[in-house]
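Regression test attached.
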Amino acid sequence: MSDEFSRIAKYFAPLAGEEGRGLTDDAAVLAPPPGRELVLTVDQMLEDVHFLPGDDPALIARKLLRRNLSDLAAMGAVPLGYLLTIALPDGVGEDWLAGFSQGLARDQKIFNIKLFGGDSSSSRGKISLSATLIGHVAPGAALSRNGARAGDGIWVSGTIGDAALGLQARLGRLADPSGFLTARSLLPEPRVGLALAGVVSAAIDVSDGLVQDLGHMCKGAGLSAVIRAGLVPVSAAAAAASGEAALETRLTGGDDYELLLAVPPGQGEALKAACGDLPVTKIGMFQAGAGVHVLNDAGAMMQFTRPGWRHF
Amino acid sequence: MSDEFSRIAKYFAPLAGEEGRGLTDDAAVLAPPPGRELVLTVDQMLEDVHFLPGDDPALIARKLLRRNLSDLAAMGAVPLGYLLTIALPDGVGEDWLAGFSQGLARDQKIFNIKLFGGDSSSSRGKISLSATLIGHVAPGAALSRNGARAGDGIWVSGTIGDAALGLQARLGRLADPSGFLTARSLLPEPRVGLALAGVVSAAIDVSDGLVQDLGHMCKGAGLSAVIRAGLVPVSAAAAAASGEAALETRLTGGDDYELLLAVPPGQGEALKAACGDLPVTKIGMFQAGAGVHVLNDAGAMMQFTRPGWRHF
């Protein structure tokens, strides 16, 4: 394995924006966009917690960025760039680093972000990664997960539960003939770039599972949520993996990175316009009270063995 | 062990500035100081690489912040706040978290910084930590490690080599009757708050070892450096741990977090004025050529078995 400085020069310096100063300085220098507020978030990805040892390093890199980009999306922020930490045990070689940095490069282009800086270290344990993403919003326009009001509709983007079923498929517990569910688990689509300020009253990304993340919104707003399981949008591949267990996995499984939104009455059309080609679906309503209530097609309250997902 | 959300609420939410939104949102929102540029840096601390399993968690927390604060100091930046990642294996309990968060709280007060956000996870390996520090500078005033010019003096703050000897003491290989060296290893003093812009032409913090970090400055500027070992400032405790091996450890050992500065001729007094009570010492000069040349008291070139320090 090459030393830390050679590795940085070879794999990471080509990814750096001018803010990163060629990754040869002690820190990055960023001139914030004039008159904008900055939005900052950090997420880790750890071997055997967030990814499996044999996973493709390019997909690990891209998911690391996308999980954080999804947090920026939930705040209504425009992504700018990121800082990276990477800690690799001795057994991880140049091939892994080459794939990882190629994954970063690919998503940097797609999402128009640059590497600002980072820290590389050896690890005496497993692979440990983190990214700190920086974005910007108009002053006061950052969305919050805590702003829902009684009477707001509960909407979600895309389809829910694909990634959790995809994880089951990757573990050999579920058939995924099209590979769609697996792809949704390995490479989520962060919903960045939507003009949601003034349209929604609260937003969160579905990372821990629909029920649990909806619970966060309820707690933050001092409200309850009632949703109908039958309204939660399902992909064709997920529908094929049918059954009550699959339904619970879909509603409580993590890693969707869709947006869960509180939308005031009368704003549904504005929401659809803001989301363009991305489908959005109303699945329920916020009301007084506490907790998340999921109704089945008969209108009865469903019970789950666990509210959310705590990784592998 | 309590769950992730209870832990965040109990140990970390009290540390959050208003930018952190009580740590209940997807990201932090920061209004940058008007007209200032931001300086961003990230460093990891990993069990068995940067700290030992039995180390005091409060000191680990404080060193994590201070290593990053030292990077801000080397850029001439004023610290604002930080984001944190923390990954703990199952065996690490509430006592550790309580100590760790108390350490953060203590240094937040000392350095006037706040927690902006973070990510907490379980780990299937060892303890893994990182902090992303955010500071600010006047536009164009950020220092660089790459700006040295031929004829600039090479200056250092404080004393050099204490932390490397302190690590030897912690490993039982060296006597440290006063505990001074051990303390310098566990709790470095980042040299933040010095008005160095316009006084120095380049700056770096000594984290990898004096010789190696001086090598970074040389490479960045396309110059060589000549220093005299006998001029490198030594603490009384380090002087007591005498001998040629201790000298090499002092000059090549890491973790000092003193500043290494390129100072144009005639700026020595201005440097001393900017540093106030912090002693600064001229140890050599940048000149044409390449590489770092360390001369002993007889004026002969010293050879080292390793140029720098790559952690434990």
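Expected vs. actual: identical. The first helix of chain B runs from residue 4 to 12.
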